[in-house]
Amino acid sequence: MKILSYLAGPIKTNCYLTFDEESLEGFVVDPGAHCQKLLDDITKYGITLKYVVLTHGHGDHIGGVEELLELYPACQLLGGLKEEPLFLGKIDNSSREICGKDLILHCDKLLAEGDEITCGNMCFKVIETPGHTPGGICLYTPGVLFSGDTLFRQSIGRTDFPGGDQVALFKSIREKLYVLPEDTIVLPGHMEETQIGFEKRYNYFV
Hints:
This protein is α/β, with parallel strands linked by helices. The chain has helices spanning 36-45, 59-62, 65-71, 84-88, 95-99, 166-177, 196-202, and strands at residues 2-8, 13-19, 25-29, 48-54, 76-80, 109-111, 116-119, 122-128, 137-141, 144-148, 151-152, 155-156, 185-188, 194-195. It has 7 helices and 14 strands. The protein has a 6-stranded mixed sheet.
């Protein structure tokens, strides 16, 4: 498994390209805006892009979705089942303010707790983590967690946007993320990577 990261959009959202080095099947997590380096790497490595996966529906994480789906029409859009109102809600997802245009996204598949995303030999499990948004998700495979805007390095996602819930966010982190192995690498939606064990010891928000 290989994971490449990119900064995309005006808010410097982390976008990730993840692919199986044997089958060259892969997926993109949270394409926040056009990113030429991402497109170049998909071509460079000869990747068959199967999915675009959204951890949640805020504009800074979805701005590059339409472009990817146009370039790779066989690619499917995946997102959390409980996040669908935000994918469809051009006002609450703040897409115009962040991306300069209204975005309404229709997922090919909606994901719930325990669902799995497979590409080649890779398998990621869906973890529902409400708090930053009502239907946000994280993706976990042994050793790696895509945490979206739920958990950052020594910080947490904001809860002052529509649908945010601080109590739910703390519960998601404590009961669903902090139970993962401490050496799990956390790849967040913003800022640099971290580890579960480090956050349990040094994240003073939780």
